[in-house]
């Protein structure tokens, strides 16, 4: 019996397994799909170990936003274990001062008012403007944020505040790499993805149209199609 190729899906900030539901539904018959939600670790190293300790020796890392940041840590500490790499709606740039201030503000918001105080801000911050009013997306984002919890939010922000620039690390990657983002991603813009793709020889850059930061739930069919085709072509 042949072993299915292993895929580690690393979740974004304030999201859980539902971030990748559409993709996993399409891939689980042919791949060993495992999803990682980051709640319990307050460092990129801890988050990377959470994934590495649960995965087989060689596997494909698929990370969106925070899941991409954790991938950079895995590149630094366990590069030979990565069979393929998919980076979605993320950036190798370290936080600039305004973003750091935003993280500190979010931590304070949740400390003062709990996770419910932050939830209403998320759709307009991350989604394509045309998607902000989508009731199903808003409810999904709310439920995922509650699942991560105030403690998880604090740990994720603490880890991200310490994030280094990772372009030099990305330049050491020599495995098939897909870089994908929403055309209108307001958080990690297309230019950041172009820069990441330029670091890795042979990397493919794919842009998802009419899409913001959470591409896997904003344009699930398009993302699943691109991911499925790319995995098949780079098996």
Give keywords.
single chain, 235 residues, alpha/beta, six-stranded parallel sheet, 11 helices, 14% strand, globular
Question: Can you offer a commentary on this structure?
Answer:
There is one protein chain. This protein is an alpha/beta fold. The chain contains eleven helices and six strands. Strands 2-1-3-4-5-6 form a six-stranded parallel sheet, sandwiched between helices. Strand 5, helix 9 (190-199) and strand 6 (204-208) form a beta-alpha-beta unit. Helix 1 packs parallel to helix 11, helix 2 crosses helix 3 and helix 4 (97-113) crosses helix 7. The longest helix is centred in the middle third of the chain and has 27 residues, at 135-161. It is globular and about 50 Å long. The two termini are 17 Å apart. The mean pLDDT is 97.
Write the layout of secondary structure elements.
Elements: E1 6-10, H1 21-27, E2 32-36, H2 44-52, E3 59-64, H3 66-78, E4 82-88, H4 97-113, H5 115-118, H6 122-126, H7 135-161, H8 167-170, E5 177-182, H9 190-199, E6 204-208, H10 215-218, H11 220-233
């Amino acid at each position: 019996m042949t072993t299915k190729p292993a895929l580690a899906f690393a979740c974004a900030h304030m999201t859980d397994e539902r971030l990748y539901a559409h993709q996993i539904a399409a891939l689980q018959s042919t791949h060993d799909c495992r999803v990682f939600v980051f709640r319990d670790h307050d460092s990129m190293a801890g988050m990377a170990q959470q994934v590495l300790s649960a995965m087989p020796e060689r596997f494909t890392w698929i990370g969106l936003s925070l899941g991409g940041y954790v991938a950079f840590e895995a590149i630094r500490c366990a590069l030979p274990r990565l069979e393929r790499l998919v980076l979605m709606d993320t950036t190798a740039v370290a936080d600039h001062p305004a973003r750091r201030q935003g993280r500190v503000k979010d931590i304070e918001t949740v400390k003062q008012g709990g996770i419910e105080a932050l939830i209403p801000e998320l759709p307009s911050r991350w989604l394509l403007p045309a998607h902000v009013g989508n009731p199903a997306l808003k409810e999904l984002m709310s439920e995922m944020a509650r699942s991560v919890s105030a403690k998880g939010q604090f740990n994720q922000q603490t880890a991200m505040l310490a994030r280094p620039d990772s372009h030099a690390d990305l330049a050491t990657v020599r495995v098939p790499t897909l870089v994908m983002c929403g055309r209108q991603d307001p958080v990690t813009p297309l230019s950041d993805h172009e820069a990441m793709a330029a670091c890795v020889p042979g990397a493919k850059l794919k842009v998802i149209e009419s899409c913001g930061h959470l591409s896997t739930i904003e344009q699930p069919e398009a993302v699943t199609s691109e991911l499925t085709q790319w995995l098949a072509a780079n098996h």
